[in-house]
Amino acid sequence: MDWVERVTGVRRWSRGGERAPHKPLLLLYALGHFQRCGDAPMFYGEVEEHLAGLLREFGPPRKTSPAYPFHYLTSDGLWEVRTVDGGGSPGPQVGVLRAQAARGRLSGELTAALRREPRLLPQLCRAILDVNFEPSLHDDICTAAGIDLESAEAAGAVAPRRRDRAFREQIMVAYEYRCAFCGYDGWLNGTAVGLDAAHVRWWAFDGPDDVTNGICLCALHHKLFDKGALGITDDRQVTVSARFVGRGPAAREQVHALAGRPVSSPQTAFPTVDGEHIAWHAREVFRSPARAA
Fold first, then answer.
1. Is the four-CA dihedral 82, 131, 8, 111 of positive or negative sign?
2. Using alpha carbons only, what angle is made at residue 80 by residues 74 and 83, rounded to the nearest 5 degrees?
3. How far apart are CA 29 and CA 25, in angstroms?
4. How far, in Å, CA of 200 to CA of 198, rounded?
């Protein structure tokens, strides 16, 4: 059985490119739990707060409940839920899941496969991350989900996926190796350092690997852009989320001061970022409202 295909093919609610990574986040949390605790059950009442935190930090900027993936993931054959009386999942209602001491675990078939093949766990984690999130968020998600991916990959000798080098080089040339938000352009021994090629619309959500969907950002602003602390307006100005808190001078100068600043354009030989990709990021990633310029 192709477990990578199974976990990347879980049925996700989708409408007009909206992000709904609820099931993938629960799967990652369950894989981290398996790495630490084997097939011990996860009681909803005990993991609810952790799952809610994952959804708040890495899900879309909309309110949601961890009860939904806890129940609905059972339909994909990867997750099982039992209540205190031995019945199946009672549904996606928070109160009912708590009252009936609902507990979930990875399916017996998947658990057996993970025990037989040590390299499967990191393969599944990488696959889930790759098809749902931008690479700048992978380490943070693993930490929050309790996954020690480095140790798992070392044990299974799994090579991590690498970013398409052609996309990076095209974006670097288009923006002349300068951060489009702050102008940072550092080099060391003839090599640009601290600069990334950032997707505006995430690759996992049909974002193409071309200049119309890419922008050169320094490492700091890339991370903040992918977390939704920074965004871009239709008229190509930087937006700063009012939810971002930074009281020191560094945060004020490197983040708050960006509000309303024009986003640098690529060289005239290259197209600017497509407005549809900007709108997707504003809707699916940026943590509104925006600070006043």
1. negative
2. 110
3. 6
4. 6
pTM of full prediction above 0.85: no
- The residue behind tokens 């017996």 is 108
The total of other beta-carbon atoms located within 10 Å of residue 225's CB is 26
**Beta carbons within 8 Å of 200's beta carbon, 6+ residues apart:** 207, 213, 214, 215, 232, 273, 274, 277, 278, 280, 281
Residue with tokens 């945060």: 251
Residue 104 Cα distances to 26, 35, 262, angstroms: 10, 15, 48
The tokens describing 218, both together, are 């320094």
Burial profile 91-106: b = 16 or more Cβ within 10 angstroms, e = fewer = eeebebbeebebbbbb
Where in the chain are the domains? Answer: 3-10+18-156, 165-284
Instruction: State both tokens at 85.
Output: 């009386």
List, for the chain, all residue ranges whose pLDDT scores fall below the cut of 50: 160
Return the pLDDT at 158.
53
Instruction: Please report the pLDDT score of residue 230 as a whole number.
Output: 98
C-alpha 252/C-alpha 248 separation (Å) is 6
What is the rounded distance in angstroms from the CA atom of residue 258 to the CA atom of residue 263?
Answer: 9
Adjacent-strand bridge partners of 104: 42, 81
Please give the span between the terminal C-alpha atoms of the chain, in angstroms, as a whole number.
54
Could you tell me the two tokens for 35? 């790495």
